[in-house]
Amino acid sequence: MKLYIVGFSGAGKSTLAQALAQSWQIDYLDIDTLCEQECGLSIADYVMRKGWESFRELESRVLHDTQKDKTSPQYPSAKSVLYSKGQDRYQSIIACGGGIVESKRNRDFLKKQRLIWLNPPWKTILARIRQNPSHFCTGKSDAELYQSYRHRCTLYKQILN
Known about the structure:
Layout: E1 2-6, H1 13-24, E2 27-30, H2 31-39, H3 43-50, H4 52-65, E3 83-85, E4 88-90, E5 92-95, H5 104-111, E6 114-117, H6 122-131, H7 142-160
Parallel strand pairs: 1-5, 1-6, 2-5
Antiparallel strand pairs: 3-4
Helix pairs in contact: 2-4, 3-4, 5-7
């Protein structure tokens, strides 16, 4: 079983996923990192060359590939020691990109998975974004970012219901 972490840019998805994976001694995957490995470019460079629509298609393909059993270094096999609580056993934890929910196909996929929606206070998210902006956030005003955040919050809520 896999555990997916979703949330807006700057929410701390990758940090939490890494900490849980280390604590639970399970594999950690990051969708953004896997996208960069697959295309051989940073997300910023990929988007500049091919656009957001193409990136969202790549991201969707990578997300759906996380359900396949892979043994290559970019998709490590599950370790023998797994987090276990009752009937739950996690083989891996996956940090999703903040915009993963923009695609209906991805929302439908994520609705069927075990999820954590990481949603710290907006001021915390904004401070983190301003400290280390992703390509999606670069050049956007606080008001534009907040509008994107509110839009995506409705999408995150959809996948949790």
